[in-house]
């Protein structure tokens, strides 16, 4: 087995589905002990059992990525987790949700949850783990942005704005902690088929018919492979940003 991450402990938020689940599996297969964080405990437990059946180490911690106290409790659990060495080396800030719709047509009642999860929760996790890594003089922060966090899409206005903020937070923490030997990477996926579309309210009418010409879309493991790659580069090499689209996706 190829185990370049052996001895490292990786926290993956949003590990119950999609990109987070695939990333936790990929990092486990590369030797890392993985901490699985999301709200749906049953799905995390199922994944932890699956990883253990393949000889890996995993711990499931249920909580809300938009609630600072839940993040703090999870980080405390990690420091108490003996199998993980009582420390962590990698944080993948992946938990997040989309929201279909323009500013005038989108559902305003969901704005608060999008901003809480995608911006404030990520900011708190980066604040806590960034300070921890800076003090340890090593660590990896990987943050999930989006192509709509770099290119304005009027069709997912609030969500896109949240991902612009995520990009700014990521570059901000990078400048703060890179002098302490901490790597920071912003991963910006294009369209990935996952639970994301249903949660965001993207359907045939408002989404899929418009992208019918894009060809084969991405699977979560396509993004996980990119994350696995950048985390296994030599410690002095930091891929600061990576955009991964389906080959046939011209925009956004
Ligand atoms: N799919 C795409 O096309 C795409 C494109 C660009 C960027 N992204 C970004 O990639 C990330 C992962 O998306 P995905 O495609 O894998 O979506 P997904 O399949 O819907 O998975 C989202 C994950 O985030 C977790 N999550 C959501 N809200 C949470 C909360 N408040 N607290 C804790 N966990 C929460 C979900 O777990 P629970 O429901 O169990 O809590 C789930 O594990 C997101 O940040 C998304 O914005 C996705």
Overview of this structure, please?
The chain is globular. The termini are far apart. The chain has a single domain (9-97, 118-150, 165-198, 217-244), classed as Rossmann fold. The protein has helices at 18-29, 41-53, 68-80, 111-136, 157-177, 196-200, 220-231, and strands spanning 9-13, 33-38, 58-62, 90-93, 139-144, 182-189, 241-244. Strand 5 (139-144), helix 5 (157-177) and strand 6 form a beta-alpha-beta unit. It is α/β, with parallel strands linked by helices and 252 residues long. The protein has a seven-stranded parallel β-sheet, with helices on both faces. Residues 14-20, 38-40, 43, 64-66, 94-98, 117, 144, 146, 189, 191-192, 194-196, 199, 220 line the site of NADP nicotinamide-adenine-dinucleotide phosphate.
Name the features.
252 residues, alpha/beta, Rossmann fold, 7-stranded parallel sheet, 7 helices, 7 strands, 40% helix, binds NADP nicotinamide-adenine-dinucleotide phosphate
Low-confidence stretches: none
Measured between the Cα atoms of the first and last residue, the distance is: 38 Å
Biggest sheet layout: 7 strands, parallel
Which bin fits the share of residues in helices? Answer: 40-55%
The computed structural class is alpha/beta
Order of helices and strands: EHEHEHEHEHEHHE
Fourth CATH level, the homologous superfamily: NAD(P)-binding Rossmann-like Domain
Sheet-strand content, in percent, reads 15-25%
The chain-level mean pLDDT equals 98
* Count of β-strands: 7
* Strands ordered across the widest β-sheet: 3-2-1-4-5-6-7
What is the alpha-carbon Rg in Å?
A: 17 Å
CATH architecture: 3-Layer(aba) Sandwich
Sum up the overall morphology in one term. globular
How many helical elements?
7
List bound small molecules. Answer: NADP nicotinamide-adenine-dinucleotide phosphate
Total domain modules: 1
CATH class: Alpha Beta
Q: Under CATH, the topology is which?
A: Rossmann fold
């Amino acid at each position: 087995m190829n185990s370049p991450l052996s001895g490292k402990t990786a926290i993956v938020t949003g590990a119950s589905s999609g990109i987070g689940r695939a990333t936790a599996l990929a990092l486990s297969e590369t030797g890392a002990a993985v901490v699985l964080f999301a709200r749906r405990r049953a799905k995390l437990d199922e994944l932890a059992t699956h990883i253990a059946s393949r000889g890996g180490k995993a711990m499931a911690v249920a909580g809300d990525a938009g609630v600072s106290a839940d993040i703090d409790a999870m980080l405390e659990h990690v420091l108490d987790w003996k199998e993980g060495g009582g420390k962590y080396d990698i944080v993948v800030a992946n938990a997040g949700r989309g929201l279909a719709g323009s500013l005038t047509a989108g559902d305003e009642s969901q704005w608060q949850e999008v901003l809480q999860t995608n911006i404030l929760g990520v900011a708190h996790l980066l604040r806590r783990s960034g300070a921890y890594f800076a003090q340890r003089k090593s660590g990896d922060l990987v943050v999930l942005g989006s192509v709509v966090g770099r290119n304005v899409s009027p069709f997912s206005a609030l969500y896109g704005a949240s991902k612009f903020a995520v990009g700014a937070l990521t570059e901000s923490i990078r400048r703060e902690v890179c002098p302490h030997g901490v790597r920071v990477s912003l991963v910006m996926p294009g369209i990935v088929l996952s639970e994301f579309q249903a949660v965001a309210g993207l359907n045939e009418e408002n989404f899929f018919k418009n992208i019918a010409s894009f060809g084969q879309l991405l699977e979560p493991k396509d993004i996980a492979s990119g994350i696995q790659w950048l985390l296994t580069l030599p410690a002095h090499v930091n891929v600061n940003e990576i955009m991964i689209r389906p080959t046939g996706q011209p925009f956004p």
